[in-house]
Amino acid sequence: MQSSKNYNETSKLHAYFDCAFAFMTFTWILFTLMAAFMQAWRNAFQKQLSTTVDVYGTTLARFLFAPIFAFSYLAFLYNQQPVTSEVSFTHKFWFYVVIAGVSQIYATALMVKLFQQKNYAIGVGLAKSEAILAALVGVLFLHEHLTVWGWVGVSIGAVAVFLLSKGRQHTELSIKTLMIGLGSGLCFAITSLLVREASLELGMLPFLHRAAWVLCSLISFQCIIMLIYLGIFSRQTLYKMWQRLGLTFKVSVCSFLASLGWFSAMSMQSVAIVKTLGQIEILFSLLISTFFFKEKLARTDHLGLWLVIVAAIMVIWA
């Protein structure tokens, strides 16, 4: 009788963990899709802004209004789900935040330069080398693990990036464009990996609260450092941003929602997996490029974009 009771309790426990695992899986996928969609629009608005504002101003637009939304979201989380655990910020946490913040600033600046080399969708496609580089750096230096299918998906993504690195009018590989794209992707990869490490330093909190604290810390640091830099060296850039305040605001809102999705997903799942699924952003970018910017793509560009989607599907299966 006792054995039957223990069996029922064990069965209920297994069922509970199965439901929790399914919920976590579904949640990180939703956060990633939201992040990819909002990031596609953020990049589109940044491309528009870059026509009248320089690289540094276009980069600042990403962070300028985001801290307001980030701290409001954090307050909302604590109101809806109060946490009694005291938050402890370690030296490692701040180290990860500072390095991630600087890396993301460089990554964004390189992406803006990438938009000037190629059209919108291809620029985003090249920057998505982040997923491949995040997998390599994570496995080599941060002891992350990928399944065989996960590696297959990442490899397909690598082929897609190679196809997308070809120029619009040329069949030869554009080395300059490729190097800018890989540089942007590497900086984004470092940012994503260190954001996850920073989140893990706040293990005393639920995953949503961890992600929110990292988000607030990171974008506040980035906003302050960029404002100080431009205030000293390029006040004209700040004036031009003021002239296009509405577009700057759109960039910040989309950036906040994208970062919220990325940070939340990466607090639950491996960076390489999240970022490979996040390559679905290129599909959103393709639609924006076609219908919003009226740009045309070459045949190899279409193949590369579809390979990105295949890679994302394989990662979900993995």
UniProtKB/TrEMBL annotation:
GO terms for cellular component: membrane. It comes from Acinetobacter haemolyticus CIP 64.3 = MTCC 9819. Keywords: Membrane, Transmembrane, Transmembrane helix. The chain crosses the membrane at residues 20-38, 59-78, 93-112, 119-142, 148-165, 177-195, 207-233, 245-265, 271-293, 300-317. This is EamA domain-containing protein. The lineage of its organism: Bacteria, Pseudomonadati, Pseudomonadota, Gammaproteobacteria, Moraxellales. The keyword Chloroplast does not apply. Residues 27-165 form the EamA domain. It comes from the Bacteria.
